[in-house]
Records
---
Amino acid sequence: MYVLTLPVLRKMLHTAAVDLKENVQYLCELDSVAGDGDHGIAIGHIADILKSHSDDTTIATMNLLLEGIGDAFMGVNAGSSGPLWGTIFAGMADGIDDQQELTEIEFKRMFAQAKEDFMDVSKAKVGDKTLVDAFYPAVGAIAETEGSIEALLDAAAEAAKKGADATADMTAKFGRAKNVGERSLGHKDPGAVSMAIFFAGLAKGARA
């Protein structure tokens, strides 16, 4: 049976935080095409929260770790990223009990719950050029893949990247970007790209 432990989850989140932080400037540049240019700023705050919580070894269970991160994300005041990421992490926390390790089935349930909670607050669908284009395929890949936690995350990272890359051929239907219409064509959605970076970081951290 494949199991994810709390120390490995911390390492995964820490690695994702580092990778997100390294891409702040790139994400701002992407967002400047059709948005306010501040998506990278929001992701920088999200990365700082991820890092500080994942490095805090006094947090005793996965549930408390994810719940604390989700609560902190809700307070990020820079566009919609904080509340959206906060909803995802709150959903992850909702999907598990107060525990220190997860089986493969529990890991899948955690992400399924995150998607379910997210769907309650966002009407965005795949193809609308939002973070959903990376997030939903990643969760789908986790659900459909069998094997180790690493295998599940590798599949998720690949699906998220493919989804984010595909947004370059889409016209935005949500947020400020929808107002520029065709001008957003040829450019990836920053929200989808940051979500893809996050899943790639999780996969890398799980193997570190």
---
Amino acid sequence: MIICIGAGPGDIGYLPRRSAELLANADVVAGFNAVVDVVRPLIPERAEVIQMGYRDQVAQLDRVAALHHAGKRCVVVFMGDIHFSGFQYLERVERACGHPVETMPGITSAQVLASRAKVCFDETSFITLHRRGDLTPFKRHLVHVLQDERNAIVIPCPWDEARSFMPWHIAAYLMENGIDPTLKTEVWENLTRNEAEWHGTLAECAEHRCSDMSIMLIRCKTPMASQIEPPPGAVA
């Protein structure tokens, strides 16, 4: 058996109960170092732990696949939810195994941010730039989202300086493409708190530096009007 689980936004308190049960019964637990460290208190002592980084992930996933095919119960952990910003990693797991694998969703940093910042997903678009390959289509999509007067929740692209697309890069790019520099913008780095680490305008964000573990909210200029019916006795 092999299953991929979303481990939540870096806090074990957000791990779904079913995922905790899968970890407790696993023979093998694998994932990137930071993610494995989050769930380590739930990993049984008898389980083999296979940690990896960006450079050795293919070789390490081949080890996991071999153990899976040998009949071991294998759990591969992802930060957040597999289908938000881990889809390329899922492809690598399935390539190593040679077949599709089962997935268990997790709570994402985007969901936590929406709750903390009180924005509705019906009025908000989520875009992750935390991926390999050409980011151009995703950058264009972000511009269109803001032009359509929707909120945007964005996971930046960290990695090396030559390729990174962090909140200050995103802000500068958006303004270069005609987006209003006065849009209210927030950068969250610790989602267990109730307040954003930083908030200001898009123009101010272009001058702000933050850590790799950040997520960004850009609010639309005019919030969508509520369509809830007026309270009883209200004057029409």
